[in-house]
C-alpha cells in the first residue's frame, strides 16, 4: 500500500513538472486591453513630447536668433526722428515763425530727420558673429547631449518595463511551483511520511513566493510611471510596451574608440565652448583696433508731419582709435584674460576626451562581461531545472530527504531570478555603451 501511495504521488508530480517554468513570448506581452508600444513608438513619442528635448530645441532657436541679430552690426543702421514742438515766448521765435509762414501763437514746424551709418572696418562685428555662431554650435551639442541622455534613460525604462512583465510571470511560476510542492508535502504529511516542520517550511516558502508576486506587480506599476515621465506624458497613463528580451550580441573585435570619442556629444560640446572662447579673444582684441565708418544724415522742416522745407544733409567718415578707451592697460589685460580662458577651455577639451575614452572603455568592458555572464546563467538555469526535476522524482519516491530536495528547488528559484537580473543588467550596459557612442533618439 505504501508503494502504491508513493506511485500515486510520483505520477502526480510528474504531471506538475510537465508545466513549463520558463516564460514564453506570449506570456511576456502586456494585457490585450492596452495598446503596446514598440521601441520605435517610444522614440517617436519622446522626440515630440519629452520636456528636456523641447527645452534644448528652444535654446537652439534662441541662439539662432542671437546669431541673426549680430549680422545687423555689419549692415547699415538707419534711424529717423520726427518732432513737433509747442511755441515758447521769444522774439527770435516769432521772427522764425513769421519767416516760415506761421502766425504768431502757432506751433513750431515739424522737423524730419534721418541718418544712416555703416562700418567699413570693425573687427568686433566679425568676432561677435563668430562667437554667436559658436554659441549655436554649443546649443546643438547640448541638444545632442540631451538626446543621448534621454535615449539612455528611455531605453533603460523600456527594458525595465519589459522585464517587469517577465518578473511578474516568473514570480507566478515560482508561486505555482511552491504551491504544488506544498500540496505534495501536505499529502506526505497526511500519510505520516513527512514532518510538521517541513510542512510549515514549505508553506512559508509559498507565502514568500506570494509576496514576490505582489512586489513585482508593484514594481511593474513603478516601471510604467518611469517610462511615462520620459515619454513626456502629463499625468499617469497605464503605458504598455512590447518587444523581445533577446539582446543583440556585442560586436566582435575591438571598437575604434578614437573615432567614437571625437563623435561623442560631450566632446563636441566642449569643442564648441573652446571655439566660443577663441572668438572671445577676437572680441577683446577688437577693443584695441581702429573702427572706420561713414555717416550720412538729412533733415527738413515743414508745417506738417511730412516736412519738406529747408532741407539739409551731411556726409562724413570717421576713424575711431581706442588708444586708452579702457584705461592705459585695461584692454591689454582683458585680452590676456580672454586668451587664458581659451587656453583653459582647450585643456578642458583634452580632459573631456580622456574622460570620454575611459567611460567608453568601461562601458564596453561591462557589456562584454555581462553578456558572457548571461550565457553562463542561462545554462545554469537549464541545469538547475533538470536537477530540480530529478530531485522531485526522487523525493516523491522516498529516495531523498526534504532538506536535500529543498536545496534543489531553491537553487532553481535563485538561478532564475539571478538570470533575469543579469539580463536586465546587460540591457542597462547595452544602453550605457550606446550612450557612450553618442547615439541619440534620432539614431533610434
Key terms:
444 residues; alpha+beta; Outer membrane efflux proteins (OEP); 2 domains; four-stranded antiparallel β-sheet; two-stranded parallel sheet; 10 helices; elongated; disordered N terminus
Care to describe what's here?
The chain has helices at 2-17, 39-49, 51-71, 91-99, 123-190, 196-231, 257-262, 265-286, 330-396, 402-437; strands spanning 36-37, 77-84, 110-121, 240-241, 291-302, 309-320. The chain is an alpha+beta fold and 444 residues long. The protein has 2 domains: 2-75 and 122-287 and 327-443, Outer membrane efflux proteins (OEP); 78-116 and 290-325, no CATH class. The protein has a 4-stranded antiparallel β-sheet, with no helix packed on it. A two-stranded parallel ribbon has the order 1-4. A hairpin with a 6-residue loop joins β5 and β6. α3 (51-71) runs antiparallel to α5. The radius of gyration is 39 Å and the shape is elongated.
Brief characterization of the structure:
Helix content is about 65%, strand content about 10%. By secondary structure, the chain is α+β, with helices and mostly antiparallel strands. A hairpin with a 6-residue loop joins strand 5 and strand 6.
